């Protein structure tokens, strides 16, 4: 039985998001997703849904897969090219480049480079493909070095991440932008909270003083009026 496959990378918490699937027997929570959500999704992915640009790209790429070719996203293909360049051993896979194709909703509909890995298992079918490539004067495979350089340049032009963090380099641009916005929001929330606390303290102090003064005035008035209504009496002389 033939099996077709597609492989791609999706980064979290940005530009993609993890959403928990709530069932009827589960209590709903409006808690903001955080690191606990990501860890839970790693442990039980069937209880979560994953949304975002990279997720959509993977499903769009699936239509180009065949039993003989595993389709890769450009980010994953670049990661594998870099991995191949960093090892002294010959890698067990070979890349094919199928030129570009338009995919709805991906990089605004502009043509997207389609990269695959050869998964042919039948020797006869492999021989036939090699002969066909010879007739058409097209290469059997592309080298990881030039392919990686092309994909890195393409991703940079389109403003897409290269997921270089997989190899110990700096975090992707989208994550650093996420950190900047997140920290800015935290600072703004703290500033507002401090301002509210300060305003509450000042209002309490001012209102408390006014209330005490008003209460004292009212008590003095009540005592004065009460004295005015009291009958004048003469106290007997004490022996």
Question: How would you describe this structure to a colleague?
Answer:
With 239 residues, the chain is an alpha+beta fold. The chain folds into two domains: 6-16 and 52-170, no CATH class; 171-226. The chain is 49% helix and 12% strand. It has six helices and six strands, in the order E-E-H-E-H-E-H-E-E-H-H-H. The protein has helices at 35-43, 53-61, 74-86, 123-136, 144-157, 173-229, and strands at residues 6-7, 17-20, 48-51, 69-72, 95-101, 112-118. The strands form two sheets. The protein has a four-stranded mixed sheet with strand order 1-4-6-5, sandwiched between helices. Strands 2-3 form a two-stranded antiparallel sheet. Helix 3 (74-86) crosses helix 5. It starts with 5 loop residues before the first strand and ends in a 10-residue tail after the last helix. Mean pLDDT is 77; it is low at 230-239.
